[in-house]
Amino acid sequence: MEDILQRVVELNLINDEQPSLDVFDVDYFHGRVDSLKSAFPEPFFYHAMAVKANPLRCIMKLGLEKNLGAECASLQEALHSLAIGFPANQIVYDSPVKTIKELETAINNGFYINLDNEQEVSQVGEYLKTYPGTVPVIGLRINPVVGAGNIAMISTATPQSKFGLPLTKDTCERILSLYQNNPWLTAVHIHVGSQGVPLTKFVDGANVLMDFLTNIEKVCPGQITTVDIGGGLSTESAEPEEFQYIQYRRKLEEKVPVLFSGKYKVVTEMGRSLFLKAGTSFTRVENVKDWIKDQNPIILTHLGTNQFPREAYLPHIWRHRFTLFTAEGVKKEGDEIMVDVGGPMCFQGDYLAKEVSVPRPEIGDIIAIHDTGAYTMSMYCRFNSIRASPVYGVKKNTEGRIQVLCYKERETVEECMRFWGRSSPTPVE
Ligand SMILES: Cc1ncc(COP(=O)(O)O)c(C=O)c1O
User: Which CATH architecture has domain 26-275?
Assistant: First the structure.
């Protein structure tokens, strides 16, 4: 990390015009994708990256170069993936709420679509009656109701979940009849949840799904070609260690062997576990306030709720590791004190974290926020019109020298303010 920051400083990439930035470690990300693929080497496994985790074009291209597909939470993400070059049939269109127009566009483009509910099934059924083209793979999201992990907000397999159709004793027949009545429904989809869901629940979810699939096979033999087991594997920001995909494979193989039979194409949709630890954010310590005795000094930085809304609003759940460096990029050593790390926004809750242990900070120091490659820039917030940081890819060349590539410039004032609409009203009637 120190070598990367020193290169960033040498290139003068932290300055008054851009006092914060993100770096994305290309070699690390490649390693993650390779480990996912080597855990599932069978040719019938297809891995889609969850675009919502990090939709930067250059980062998505890294995934595309490694033959990942793209899992998309909106039609915009799907069209973005198509424009970047992902083949249409490897774009998984999973949006939780879709208009009929969006569904039609997705079908016309040949995306793999996961429907959410019976209304979408009937809308698509109507459209397909006169659709002249080839029908893409279309599935239905099923909630296997295997229960929550320890973060309710991102646990999607409870009876209260807003996602998909809940599979229970009472609903099983209804879901089966959707497959029977719509022979173009050729896929099944689950996504049990994200961070905080234990591995066993992902495996339980796949197990429930495959049991249900045997029922579908009884009434519509051979109709299902594709099984999408979702993403979601936990990766802790509080730990330097990374989750190993091979553990997931072993558990699936033990409990759900049919997934490995080759009978079905199996799709995964990893986000956080692929991207998180490839990213680091750096921000300059702009001020240090230590006026009140017996209270943590407060350091003011350029990153807070703008790029880290989860961390600011739910600090007991989302927390990063931090390291403090000098302005020259040298790791600070010495006795540590507790500080509170404040962001640039105009409300008192805007802290990246409190009670962070670092050597005594000084104005001009640089603080590194580790593990920011997923769900940080993609959650960027417009409040207070703070301009988003630039993002750089970093990788080692053959001589071991760190190469820095610009993936995204710092947002300009004009780009930032465009969000706030027209300068004068235009009549609409
Ligand atoms: C349908 C779906 N697939 C995949 C993902 C990716 O999850 P994660 O980043 O936790 O792997 C999500 C996350 O929200 C999702 O909703």
Answer: Alpha-Beta Barrel (3.20)
